[in-house]
Amino acid sequence: MKKIGLALSAGGARGLSQIVILEAFEELGIKPHIISGCSVGAVIGTAFASGMTANEMKDSVREIILKDHHKSKELFKGFDMLKILNLVDLTVNSGGLIKGEKFINFIEQKIKKKRFEELDIPVKVVTTEYWNRKEVVFDSGELLKAIKASYSLPALFTPSKIDDGLYLDGGLVNPLPFDILLDECDIVVGIDVLAKNSVNGNNAPSSLDTLFSSFQIMQKAILNEKLKTSTPDILIRTDIKGVRLFEFNKAESVWKQSAKYKDELKSQLSVYL
To answer: Mean pLDDT of all residues in the chain?
Structure first.
């Protein structure tokens, strides 16, 4: 059997589409040989590698986002917090507004793994080391610290300290880390959820909308430059509409829009199998 590598991208709430796309592997009865990911892609990829099914991941999202609004605000602080921040000036001494500990504790409860070596499928988690301004890939040792580092969006989440390093969101340097799998696999699949502007309108965006949309514009530019020199064997590029970066409460809409991309991946994988 050919070795399949799966790369999952950053993308905030739109990144939840990758859960549905993973169903292509389940329905074909195959598993990736190795998974890479950053930010939301690192979270979803690790959950899949731990043995969680796509449906179990959906149920977990519903548990923390859809069924208990108060709990979701505690875990993510969501758009309610972001709207408030547009009205006030804050002094931040810890490098970010949210520690993110509650969310990482929730992840630990679900995946039930503490180290990379315990996962059913090897995973590479991409982060950005702040002091040296470079990409760092974690694939061994403590799992949860690496995951938290990978989704630590600058200014929003506090950076993660691992040994002597300070780590931020991997999307700053490699928003779709397919390239780190090319030498290890026969087939590399990349899932790009870095959409175009997902919400159109005549009103000017808020300051925070502008800030975080600018971050995604940068990620898209990085990826487009990478694709000029190398590409995954299969590249699925989604276009999830009507969902902003932190609108995780729109998960059901994301999943509904993602079914066609799952079918696209199944079709393309079948050619190689």
So the answer is: 86
